[in-house]
C-alpha cells in the first residue's frame, strides 16, 4: 500500500471513529442515567478531544440544565460537583448553593464526607470555577484540599482512589490545567477510562488515533515555524538571545487546540517569538539611549526612525514590522478586515513597558509593588498575544452589527487577568529565564520593600493568593462574555492561562520539567 493510500485509510478510520463517538455521546443523553452522559463529557474534556464534539456536548449540558430547573437530578457529592463544574464552565448559571446540602447544622461541611474520596476530588475540581464572593466555594476548596492532602499522608479510606490520582487532582485540577499534560498512553491506561461504560472502548480508540494525527500535524507546523525563524536570520545577529522555536510554538499549540486552525497556530507563534526577542534586546543588549530610540521607532512605525540604531536593532525592527504587516494582510485576506492599527498599538505598549522596566533597573530604584505589577502586566506580552489571537480567530470584524458581536474593549478585563496570572507566576519562579544573564524585576522583591516586616515566605504566599484571586476574576469574565459569540477566543485564552505554570515552574536545575513533559507527550514521544 502506497503512503498516500495508507494516509487516506487512517483518515477515513479516524473520521468514522469521531462519528461513532459523537453518536454515542448523543445516545447517552437520556433521562434514565443522566450522570453517564456527564461522565462521558468529562472524559472527552480530560483527554482533549472535546473540540470535536462541541454541538453534542452543548446539547447534553443544555438538557441537564433545563432538567435541573424542574427538579433535583443529582444528590451525591461527586455527582453534584461534576454537574456544577461542567455546566458552569459551559456558561450556564449554576448557583453555589447546590453545595449547602452537604453542610451540617453547624454550617460546616459534614465530617462524613471526608471518607468520600471520589466526591472530594470532584468537589475540589468544582471549586476551581469559583467567582469572587462565593464563600461556600472557598470553603469547599479548603475542605476538599485538607482531606485529600491527609490521604496523601497515609490517612486513606479503603477502596478509594489511588494516591497518584489524588496527587494529580491537587497539582493539576482540570479547569486550570492544559489537556494532555499526561501522555496519551497514561491517559488510556489510567483510572479515567477504566470501567464498564459502553463508550469507553470507542473513546480510548479515538484518543489513540487523535494523538498520533495531532502529533504529525504539530510536527509539520513546527517545521514551518522553525524555517520561518531561521530564514529571518535574527538568531545569528543576536547570538545571546533565546532561540527557542519549539517553546514558542508550544504556546500556540496548547492555546489553539482545534486541529483545523493550523494557520492560526503558525501565525500566532510569530509574535510570540518577537516578544522573547525584544525582551532579550532590552534585557541583554541595548543601552538606555538605544532602547529609547528603538521604542520611539516602534511607536512611530516608520523606517526613517531607525537610522540611528545599531544594525541588530534595525534588523529586528524591520523583521517585526514586515511580519506584523504580513499577519495583518493575511487576516484581511481570510476574514475581510485589517487589524494593523490594533497590532501596532500592542507592540508600542509592550516596548513602552519594557523601557519603563529598563529605566527602573538602570537607576537601581525599585518601584512600588503596585507600580511594578501594572507595568509588568503589559511587559509579559500577554496583550500582544491575545490581540493577535483575537483577530486571527476572525473576531472584531463587525460583520452584522448584532448585539452578540465582540470587540477588543469587551475583552480588556479578561486579558488583564491572564496577564496578571502570567506576571505573578513568572515572579514566583526563578528570577532568571534559562539561558539569560540579564536582570529581571520581581513583584516579590518590590512587595517586600513596601512591607519591610514581611518575610519572603509570606510574600510568596501573598502572590499565590493573588493568583488564586485573579483566577476568580478570570472565571467571572469568561462567564460575562457568554453573551458574545466568542467561544473559540475564550477557550484559547483560557488555555494560555493554563499553560503558564508549565512555562514558569522551574526545578533546582533551572529546567522546566512540566513543559518538557508536555512537549514530549504532544510533539516527540
TrEMBL record:
Keyword Lyase attached: yes
Domain Terpene synthase metal-binding: 230-472
Species of the source: Sesamum alatum
Pfam families reported for this sequence: Terpene_synth, Terpene_synth_C
Protein name: Tricyclene synthase 0e23, chloroplastic
A molecular function (GO) term: magnesium ion binding
CDD domains noted in UniProt: Terpene_cyclase_plant_C1
Domain called Terpene synthase N-terminal: residue spans: 5-168
GO biological process, one term: diterpenoid biosynthetic process
Keywords in alphabetical order: Lyase, Magnesium, Metal-binding
Cofactor annotation: Mg(2+)
Amino acid at each position: 500500500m502506497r503512503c498516500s493510500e495508507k494516509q487516506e485509510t487512517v483518515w477515513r478510520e479516524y473520521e468514522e471513529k469521531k462519528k461513532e463517538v459523537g453518536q454515542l455521546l448523543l445516545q447517552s443523553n437520556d433521562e434514565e442515567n443522566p450522570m453517564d452522559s456527564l461522565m462521558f463529557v468529562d472524559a472527552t474534556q480530560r483527554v482533549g478531544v472535546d473540540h470535536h464534539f462541541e454541538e453534542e456536548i452543548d446539547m447534553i449540558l443544555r438538557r441537564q440544565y433545563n432538567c435541573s430547573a424542574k427538579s433535583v437530578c443529582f444528590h451525591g457529592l461527586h455527582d453534584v460537583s461534576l454537574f456544577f463544574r461542567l455546566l458552569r464552565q459551559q456558561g450556564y448559571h449554576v448557583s453555589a448553593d447546590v453545595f449547602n446540602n452537604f453542610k451540617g447544622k453547624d454550617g460546616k461541611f459534614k465530617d462524613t464526607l471526608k471518607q468520600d474520596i471520589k466526591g472530594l476530588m470532584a468537589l475540589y475540581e468544582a471549586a476551581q470555577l469559583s467567582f469572587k464572593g462565593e464563600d461556600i466555594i472557598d470553603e469547599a476548596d479548603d475542605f476538599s484540599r485538607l482531606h485529600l492532602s491527609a490521604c496523601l499522608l497515609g490517612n486513606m479510606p479503603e477502596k478509594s482512589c489511588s494516591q497518584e490520582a489524588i496527587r494529580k487532582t491537587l497539582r493539576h485540577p482540570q479547569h486550570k490545567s492544559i489537556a494532555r499534560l499526561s501522555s496519551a498512553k497514561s491517559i488510556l491506561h489510567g483510572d479515567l477510562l477504566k470501567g464498564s461504560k459502553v463508550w469507553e472502548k470507542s473513546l480510548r480508540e479515538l484518543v489513540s488515533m487523535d494523538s498520533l494525527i495531532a502529533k504529525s500535524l504539530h510536527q509539520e507546523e513546527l517545521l514551518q515555524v522553525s524555517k520561518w525563524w531561521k530564514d529571518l536570520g535574527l538568531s545569528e545577529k543576536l547570538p545571546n538571545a533565546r532561540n527557542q522555536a519549539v517553546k514558542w510554538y508550544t504556546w500556540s499549540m496548547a492555546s489553539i487546540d482545534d486541529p483545523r486552525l493550523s494557520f492560526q497556530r503558525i501565525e500566532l507563534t510569530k509574535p510570540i517569538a518577537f516578544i522573547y526577542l525584544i525582551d532579550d534586546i532590552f534585557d541583554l543588549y541595548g543601552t538606555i539611549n538605544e532602547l529609547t530610540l528603538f521604542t520611539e521607532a516602534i511607536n512611530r512605525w516608520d523606517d526613517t526612525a531607525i537610522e540611528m540604531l545599531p544594525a541588530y536593532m534595525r534588523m529586528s525592527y524591520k523583521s517585526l514590522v514586515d511580519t506584523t504587516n504580513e499577519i495583518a494582510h493575511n487576516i484581511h485576506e481570510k476574514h475581510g478586515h485589517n487589524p494593523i492599527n490594533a497590532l501596532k498599538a500592542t507592540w508600542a505598549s509592550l516596548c513602552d513597558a519594557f523601557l519603563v522596566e529598563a529605566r527602573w533597573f538602570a537607576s537601581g530604584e525599585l518601584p512600588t509593588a503596585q507600580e511594578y505589577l501594572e507595568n509588568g502586566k503589559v511587559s509579559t506580552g500577554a496583550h500582544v498575544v491575545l490581540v493577535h489571537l483575537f483577530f486571527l480567530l476572525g473576531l472584531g470584524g463587525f460583520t452584522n452589527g448584532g448585539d452578540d458581536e465582540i470587540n477588543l474593549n469587551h475583552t480588556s478585563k479578561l486579558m488583564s487577568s491572564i496577564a496578571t496570572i502570567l506576571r505573578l507566576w513568572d515572579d514566583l519562579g526563578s528570577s532568571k529565564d534559562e539561558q539569560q544573564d540579564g536582570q529581571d524585576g520581581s513583584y516579590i522583591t518590590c512587595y517586600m520593600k513596601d512591607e519591610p516586616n514581611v518575610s519572603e515566605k509570606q510574600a510568596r504566599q501573598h502572590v499565590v493568593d493573588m493568583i488564586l484571586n485573579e483566577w476568580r476574576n478570570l472565571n467571572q469574565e469568561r462567564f460575562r462574555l457568554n453573551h458574545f459569540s466568542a467561544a473559540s477566543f475564550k477557550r484559547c485564552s483560557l488555555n494560555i492561562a493554563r499553560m503558564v505554570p508549565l512555562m514558569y515552574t522551574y526545578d533546582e536545575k533551572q529546567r522546566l520539567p512540566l513543559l518538557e513533559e508536555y512537549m514530549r507527550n504532544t510533539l516527540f514521544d
